[in-house]
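Below sits the subject:

***
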Amino acid sequence: MRLVRIANFVTERSGGLRTALHRLGIGYRAAGHDTVLIVPGERSLDEQTDQGRVITLPGPRVPGMGGYRALVDRRRVTAVLRDLAPDRVEVSDRSTLRWVGSWARTAGVPSMMVSHESLSGLFRLFGPAAAGRWADRLNERTASAHDVVVCTTVWAEEEFTRIGATNVVRVPLGVDLDLFTPERYDVRLRRRWAADDDVLLLHCGRLSAEKRPRRSLDALAALRDAGVPAVLVVAGAGPLRSALQEEAADRCLPVRFLGHLRDRTELAALLATADVALAPGPVETFGLAALEALASGTPVVVSAESALPEVIGTAGIAVPGGGRGYAAAAASLLARPNRRTAARRQADRYPWSASVAGFLAAHQATPSLATSPGLDEPA
């Protein structure tokens, strides 16, 4: 089967979406399928990679998005799709690429849209209360434009359930359980960022408004106000980085901004070495960074407004509101004697093999959509 995937807002500094595309592509190839990924970039490229063929088409930068690009030349994208003659199309963008589902239907090609973001959640952050109706209308168009919509959590699925969409399946994402492991704990790395008695907090994620990174600064401040000698390491880039650095300096907070870590092994060591990870984003539909922290043996404090509570289970704490709640939750996790074992045990429920099997089932590449592993719960 030739499976053509297409995504916007993917760069070398991308986080969860880039990781998911890469791991799924590797899994599709291992299952014997011919995979092609189309993404935007600065210039045209056509490469053979471990996830299959990757075609980069020129796309302009999106203002205010910290370097993200988008495919806007529909004529060129359509020509590439037509030349590739896909058996299945997988779309990882519900807004700017929704038209691909309509193209696929006209061409007689089954299409699947993967819901990597919540329109309802984004509207709650940036729009008026009535904007929820607009999210429903856009979601209705998305669901009708594709044969299948894949959601990674019950939380993400809810906005399609609310509008009565009947072509939605649930497939959790996964985590690399060999790369992210408690065994990567690094004493020397810890001493680089924290004193022996310090609590090492980690914020791992894009520094943009929807991720609420200031909550991590507030959590650090609240812990220090309570007499806890905490420090914060921030791994991630984004449009808010300069403002956050200035704020941390103005508040005399011990924060180290590392930027985007391209070396996944370095990231795995940092995740395993931290005492507590913070994931304050309220519109996360899955939260790969938090799951990678759990796999590394590090408990996580997450936003109760997001999908993360169902992903972390009892291996972390979900908090409503702002930074003081995060500080209290971090202190509570630090008091748990088995926190690292519990974190890893929760992550073990999410192997990438189950995700790949579930996604292929959604593509009807396996015999039964209803009974394939990974559709509702991790295998």
Notes: The chain has a mean pLDDT of 90. The CA atoms of residues 45 and 56 lie 5 Å apart. The longest strand covers residues 34-41.
